[in-house]
Amino acid sequence: MEFKDKKVLVIGLARSGMAAIKVLHELGARITLSERKSRDELGEIGELLEMGVTVVGQTEEVFEGDYDLAVKNPGIPLNSPIVKRLEERKIPIITEIELAYQAAKPQHYVAVTGTNGKTTTTTLVYDILNEAFPGKAHLCGNIGVPLCEIVMENGLLNEAGHYIALEISNFQLVNIDSFRPEAAVILNLTPDHVDFMGSLDAYYRSKVRVYENMRGGDTFLLNKDDELIEKYTKLCPVRCGIETFSLDTTDADSFIKDGYIFVQGEKVLPTDCIHLVGKHNLQNVLAAVCAAKAVGADNDAIKKAVSSFRGVEHRIEFVREKDGVRYYNDSKGTNTDATITALKAFDRGVILLVGGFEKGLSMDEMKKHLGCVKKVIGFGACGRRLVSELVGDDGTVVTTLDEAVSEAVKTAEKGDTVLLSPTTSSFDQYSCFEERGEHFKKLVNSL
Asked: How far is 235 from 422, CA to CA, in rounded Å?
């Protein structure tokens, strides 16, 4: 799209909205920002006015205005009156990732999506690309850094050929148009975000949009171990090259055998270079290696990056050991499958802290994976329901994370593990899972 003199409505500021506005301003668009906060609450108001941005609220009449395009904050639900009215008026809606993709010169995009493991895998992809192509690799997307920000800071409106490791969520995928990665992977599909998408089918279909525009020499990495991915790739056919990977079989293009990662028949990496715990992390590393190889990373860069990789913050992150008890921060475990994955990394003696915002997810599957759990402590808005459904009267219910940690300390014995893996989002008591995780670490480090 040609953006010069186009009338663009940006819905919601935050970091991604501000990044989108800077790209649009550079391209000569006429920008209106619709924001819930008042002008007095916007610390960026001076910069916005300097760029000529019209700042308005989110009243009904705002969405009756004359616009050529809307750039939506990914967190705004699809069924919101804002979105519905714009759709009724046939105004195209995109997110800042699509805007950045359309505005930038051609780059090498590696897109990582799925229900769990996205941040770990995307970060490792970036580390490998940064070793292979120093100065030309960037990490962004749902991981917290907008793609528009990367585009502006690195001159990608005018320079091509950089390598972009992009974590992309279903919130961002539902509003893509032409976005086309060179390599993409769906790590797994498990129930999540039904509140946002309306149904599990809609959620799964939003994920497969990652390969919707891929063609020709592009590479989609297919996880053969996930039946739902196989189902949805049949319902929504892949039109580019497919490379399979698996932990469960060697009947795939890439696999692990005899202590090595093999990619397309080539022995690439010894598994003793991998320092992350859990089978799920073997899969994350395998996927990251395959994705990086797909865009040209060499084996030396892969080995160096994997050998030095210690995981990401808030995902089964070791905090400390005190009095023989180990504490792990898995605040990014915002659905049941993520918590199940975390539990699989431990054999016994787990004191599990669960709770937070009520997403209505069933605990039935998680109940099958409590063999290593010694005690369940619930906190927050849905803590009581989670404990009731998981262990009934054998659990403990408190109100805050502070109280949950105190209860865990009373229960824990030498050799035990205290694991914060909430199974749900943080929005009842925190602004984000990062804030919740930082609070947990502060509590643990003050013991």
From this structure: 33
Residue ranges of alpha helices (H) inside 71-117 are 81-88, 96-103
* Whole-number Cα distances in Å, 72 to 95, 99, 242: 5, 10, 31
Pairing of strands 108-113, 137-141: unpaired
CA distance 136 to 209: 26
> pLDDT by residue (tens digit) across 244-289?
999 999 999 999 999 999 999 999 999 999 988 788 899 999 999 9
Cβ pair 10, 17 in contact under 8 A? yes
- Token pair for 204: 């799964």
How far is it, in rounded angstroms, from Cα 266 to Cα 80? 49
Instruction: Tell me the CB-side half-sphere exposure of residue 279, using CA atoms within 13 A.
Output: 10
3-state secondary structure (DSSP) of residue 85? helix
Q: Are 42 and 101 in contact (CB under 8 A)?
A: no
| Least trusted range by pLDDT, from 232-246, 303-317, 407-421 | 303-317
Strands 325-329 and 317-322: antiparallel
Which residues neighbour 366 within 8 Å (Cβ) at sequence distance 6 or greater? Answer: 336, 339, 340, 390, 423
Task: Supply the pTM of this predicted model.
Answer: 0.79
Q: Work out the number of other CB atoms within 10 angstroms of the CB of residue 372.
A: 16
Non-local CB neighbours of 235 within 8 Å, separated by 6+ positions: 205, 208
Coil, strand or helix: which one is 336? helix
Backbone phi and psi for residue 363, each to the nearest 5 degrees, phi listed first: -100, 5
